[in-house]
Design a protein that fits this description.
There is one protein chain. This protein has 15 helices and 17 strands. It has about 500 residues and is an alpha+beta fold. The chain is rod-shaped, with a radius of gyration of 47 Å. The chain binds adenosine-5'-triphosphate and magnesium ion (MG). The site of adenosine-5'-triphosphate has 22 residues, from helix 13 and helix 14. This is histidine kinase. It catalyses: ATP + protein L-histidine = ADP + protein N-phospho-L-histidine. InterPro entries: HATPase_C_sf (IPR036890), HATPase_dom (IPR003594), His_kinase_dom (IPR005467), HisK_dim/P_dom (IPR003661), HisK_dim/P_sf (IPR036097), PAC (IPR001610), PAS (IPR000014), PAS-assoc_C (IPR000700).
Length: about 500
Amino acid sequence: MNEHLYKELDWRLRVFDSLSFPTLILKPDRSIVSANQIFLQKYAVEMDQVIGKRCHQVFYGAETCPNKVCPFEKVISDKSGTSAMRRFTTRTGKRLYEDRVFSPILDDNGEVAYIMESVRDVTRQKHLELALKETEDFLEKVILGSPIAIVAADRYGHILLMNPAAEELFGYTNTFAIRHVTAHQLYPSGTASSIMRQLKQSRGKLPSVRTTIVNAQGEEIPVDLTASIIYEDEEEVATVGIYTDLREKLAVERKLKDAQAQLAQSEKMASLGQLAAGVAHEINNPLTGILFYANLKLEKMVPEDPEREDVEAVVEDVKRCRDIVQNLLAYSRQSSPMKDIIQLNAIVNQSLTLVRDPKMFRNVKIERDFSDEMMLVHVDKNQISQVIINLVINAVSAMAGAGTLTLRTYRDKVRGKAYLEVSDTGCGIAAEHLSKIFDPFYTTKAPGEGTGLGLSTAYGLIKENKGNIRVSRTSAEGTTFVLEFELYQAVQDPTAEAEEEM
Ligand SMILES: Nc1ncnc2c1ncn2[C@@H]1O[C@H](COP(=O)(O)OP(=O)(O)OP(=O)(O)O)[C@@H](O)[C@H]1O
Ligand SMILES: [Mg+2]
């Protein structure tokens, strides 16, 4: 061999030995031709222990290769490199990962003459990869399982993630949101930009704000929002929003406020009732006296007496005063009810016949929306009629004589209640007047047109009959008053209800 050739060979051997990874040169029949120094060190073998051996004899100490697929076949057929991951456990129980890279060495005809196999220990990377995956899986489980709605969007507002709680709140599936929804669509117009502005002003962290979101159906939902911007290398990459649905909380707050208002109202009614009862009692006796003597005087007068008209006027006015006192007594619940068991629909029908003043109802359409279920109530039917008449008269006057008056009855068996709704298409009641309409003498009508005793009387009579009266709706489109009664439960005769069930 000439010197030049020696030099060339020496140089190639040096390259082979300086490879940082343990490396073998094999023939296509898998017999080992050479191993570099690092290989010998790493596997603690001598060169002559490996030369001529098959790779599986060195790696696995096995006569046949235990691998189902051998990368050699692919390298030989494709004449290009490939790699394979090998996982194994050492005798001390350590789990190791090796990445093996197979590179073909071609002869002058372009056929695979040798295969170079480098072994790279990737145990550390693999363990890090596994740990990262575990953390990712864990975080994913936390986000997916969270009962709190979480949405992430990129800096352009494209949705990146919507967890199941957010899917439920917003009404989109995660996949649909990622493809078709932007963060701006999740809020009423202008809100998303304003949130982003606040977020930037508060250095990427918005602790908690009350805002409104819009769901897939276009419904606006009040929420509590916590948001933050995620930065990577000081660059804004995403925004995450955490939403708490406030509907339930607000409903409870509203109920509490209503209950407080009702309590205040009934306290006021009770003290006004006491006052009214006192005044009514004091006035009742002198009124009876005035009426008695005025009538007496009238009886003694001849028809052509010039003073007769004056005395008649006194009798009329005193009667009016007596009616007022009667109403006050009803309001302060000083009247004594005569209760019967009666169908609610029957009382409503009877009341309508009593109130039907043709002039007043000329342009009023009356709609009866009666439930045909059994709705027995234990009440004084004359008193309840008076209540209904008062409500109907108010409704018709609120409609200035033209519109639709609807009387609806229904029951709630679970609560044991029967209801009558009296709705009109009238002018409605201003919010600031609502707390006063049941007060005696509160009226918005012109003097002489109303005394303001209709609703206070109705209130007293309804309470006397163990019921409730309230305004359930009022706006410029009209008003609905609801009367609530206890359903009569035939305790002594259980068959009555049973028959009805059949
Ligand atoms: N259906 C209704 N629509 C609009 N406002 C109403 C309605 N019912 C009552 N109101 C308001 O409540 C006030 C009090 O009613 P209430 O029946 O006690 O007295 P009134 O109708 O004014 O007088 P009275 O009934 O003694 O003739 C009314 O003056 C009116 O302002
Ligand atoms: Mg009235």
